[in-house]
TrEMBL record:
CDD domains per the UniProt record, alphabetical: RHO_alpha_C (cd00680), Rieske_RO_Alpha_N (cd03469)
Gene Ontology molecular function, alphabetical: 2 iron, 2 sulfur cluster binding; benzene 1,2-dioxygenase activity; iron ion binding
Domain Rieske: 35-142
Keyword Repeat: no
PROSITE patterns cross-referenced by the UniProt entry: RIESKE
Entry EC no(s): 1.14.12.3
SUPFAM superfamilies referenced in this protein's UniProt entry, alphabetically: Bet v1-like, ISP domain
Pfam families in the record: Rieske (PF00355), Ring_hydroxyl_A (PF00848)
Gene name per UniProt: bnzA
InterPro entries tied to this protein: Rieske_2Fe-2S (IPR017941), Rieske_2Fe-2S_sf (IPR036922), Ring_hydroxy_dOase_asu_C_dom (IPR015879), Rng_hydr_dOase-A (IPR001663)
Cofactor (UniProt): Fe cation
Keyword terms, alphabetized: 2Fe-2S, Dioxygenase, Iron, Iron-sulfur, Metal-binding, Oxidoreductase
Descriptive protein name: Benzene 1,2-dioxygenase subunit alpha
Length: 375
């Protein structure tokens, strides 16, 4: 079921995983125009709820202003302090922790202590810097670039699928970890099943045969589908899915929207994974997991929903940790490798991803994604 019938060139060279120049080009041309899943709606459900995080060397704050989500640079225009260092919380007003400047939902100043001391008022340079924010399902996305495609256009290849990250599926857990490797090492690992027998002998155990592995390849998107074996565990899961009022598909999907947003799904869960570069040879990997709660209510549904949350979270964290064991070794190998590399047909999604990186970060083709899409 693979698209290519022969092995492929490894398009990226070791220096693409180590050079500062490549890192900067990727930040500018791949990540700044992209939309980034950073939170879930439940974290920002009430007026005054906020989430803050560092995103691509940029401190971000997302806040609920009377039902409207707004995103700003987490820096006060007064004396450059971060507005808050808390990762989340609820405040009556958006207020700088240093001198108490307050800001409205449009980023303009509200109450300023000892305001007459700042006459004449420089209104233009006293506003917070805003960022575009939007939602898909229960996922909250932010874009750092001032210009670019809308969230709907950026999500076009996957929006219909990722809208299910919510509704019958409830937010179960969010976790992240720093890894000593280039971000592409993590992303490429997620794009192939060839490593499964070595890295996941206790969870996935074996990669699916070619006739049970479907690939789709496009410029900005690739997907993988397989049907898990109908063993005792699968039958039990299917029974629980039916009892929770959701149709059984028994399909596993893994969809990647370049450069870095990965959505995987089975009937019992939806998971968004995103890898962010933090340096040429370091990255941060974040996972947002939703598990099936279903459409039915009652004690049986409650117990089943709690069990699925527990088992799906446990397995997802285990798989995450298993993958994490190989990243350091891959990065060290890249830094010493004299080989050109080779990609097998089972790894063809890696080849498509590498082509995307090269097309958007080298020579005359080095254009922001937004310009490329609108051209």
């Amino acid at each position: 079921m693979f698209i290519h019938q022969h092995h492929l060139r490894h398009l990226l060279r070791p220096e693409h995983y180590t050079a500062a120049e490549q890192y900067r080009a990727e930040l500018r041309h791949l990540f700044l125009p992209a939309w980034h899943p950073v939170a879930v709606v439940d974290q920002l459900a009430k007026p005054g709820d906020f989430v803050s995080l560092d995103l691509l060397e940029t401190p971000i704050l997302i806040r609920n202003f009377d039902g409207q989500l707004r995103a700003f640079l987490n820096v006060c225009p007064h004396r450059h302090s971060r507005l808050t260092d808390e990762p989340c919380g609820n405040t009556e007003r958006l207020r700088c922790r240093y001198h108490g400047w307050e800001f409205r939902e449009d980023g303009r100043t509200g109450k300023i202590p000892d305001a007459p001391a700042f006459r004449p008022w420089d209104r233009e340079n006293s506003c917070l810097r805003p960022f575009a924010v939007g939602t898909c399902g229960d996922l909250v996305f932010v874009r750092l670039s001032d210009t670019g495609v809308s969230l709907d256009d950026w999500l076009a290849p996957v929006r219909g699928h990722w809208e299910s990250y919510g509704g019958a599926y409830r937010h179960a857990a969010t976790w992240e970890k720093e890894f000593p490797c280039n971000w592409k090492v993590v992303l490429e690992n997620s794009l192939e099943s060839y490593h499964i027998p070595e890295v996941h002998p206790k969870t996935f155990k074996e990669y699916p045969p070619a006739e049970n592995a479907w690939h789709e390849l496009a410029e900005r998107f690739s997907s993988f589908k397989t049907v898990p074996p109908l063993d005792f565990a699968s039958r039990a899961m299917n029974w629980m899915v039916r009892r929770l009022g959701v149709p059984v598909t028994n399909e596993y999907w893994h969809r990647v929207l370049h450069p870095h947003a990965t959505g995987s799904s089975l009937d019992i869960f939806r998971m968004m994974q995103c890898v962010f570069p933090t340096g040429p040879t370091t990255c941060r990997y974040r996972c947002i997991l939703f598990t099936l709660r279903g459409t039915r209510r009652g004690p049986v549904a409650w117990v089943l929903g709690r069990f699925l949350k527990w088992i799906a979270t446990r397995i997802a964290v285990q798989v995450f940790d298993e993958d994490g064991t190989i990243y350091r070794g891959v990065q060290r190998g890249l830094e010493a490798s004299p080989f050109p590399g080779v990609i097998g047909t089972r790894e063809e999604r890696v080849h498509a991803f590498q082509r995307y990186v090269l097309d958007h970060t080298r020579g005359p083709s080095e254009l922001p994604l937004a310009e490329k899409l609108s051209g």
